[in-house]
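Example 373.
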Amino acid sequence: MKLALPGGIQGFLTEYWQKKPCLIKGGIQAFEDPLDANDLAGLAMEAEIESRLVVKNGDKWDVQHGPFENFPTSETDWTLLVQAVDHWFEQSQDLMSLFDFMPRWRIDDLMISFSVPGGGVGAHLDQYDVFIIQGEGRRRWRVGDKQPLKTLTPHPSLLQVEPFTEALIDEEMQPGDILYIPPGFPHEGYAIEPSLNYSVGFRAPSGRDLLSSFADLAIDKELYNHRYSDPDLRPREHNGEITLAELTRLKSNLTQIFNDDATLQRFFGQYLSEAKHELDLAPAEPAYQQEEVQQLLHEKAPLHRLAGAKALYLAGISDTLFVDGEAYDLPQQAVQALADSSAADVSVLAAHPDALAVLTDLINKGYFYFVEE
Ligand code: SIN
Ligand code: CO
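Predicted structure in complex with succinic acid:
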């Protein structure tokens, strides 16, 4: 499979990314479905995996959350959606790796839907950029321009909007076609034939998300106990007033926090590496000893990162590896080898006892694993 974006990757990013939707006919050359409807149904039966079934019945919508034991028998008007399939289904890695040109921290998950004719989730907006790839079957997709649309609530969890009449894109998608939609553009898709759709979604934290997670960290670590102080206080004529000077001083209490770069940077690394959907994390059983890890590194046994787990580092601070919300100190070479590609040459680590201890810990937790030959 090969990605073919209009104007190449850079051309696409400049022209469309976060700017306007586009339909890319044949966007994935030699497209192959990594799974079929039965595989998807199997995933939706697992308790750890997030899934939804959306059934349309005239004007009424019904939403059920998995795990499911059985599925509708009707041949029309329902869709099954499974979240974070990339975390659970190894064979989806080839599809995900087509998006290796994107910063890993921006990637959220691979959502896969199976729809029977007429099936869809209704017109809605997403807060995320998404590439919707058409797999098996055909589905008609419409995308409207950004516009004020009333939120409808035929079902509270669908976040639907009122129908949009004018469409920027109105196409029947075929296998391998890609629909790119930036945040805020209303869209709807209805299957024409039983259809698989792959949504590669991106995350973009809001200021509020960042603030509230940073506040959690400050509370947890009991940071920023500095208090407002006013040893220069004067008698006050208007004692109901908070003066401008006082406001400035209060604000500087906050500015001090936002100027604490060391804490903020570590927070960003931890926050952005945290998986937003459950990981298929299985601690190594039995646990590896450091010597065994060293031996396997010497033998150049391929080391893989757990699918969906984010291993990241910060520009300029390359001796800390962030994995799923935790920070690990490692030599710079090791950090890049572990974070930048899925099957990295990390044999250099065999010679670093401290790094070996950290890597053994990461392997025992299940974030990395050896594929022994
Ligand atoms: C779907 O595949 O039905 C939903 C994808 C989306 O609209 O985000
Ligand atoms: Co959507």
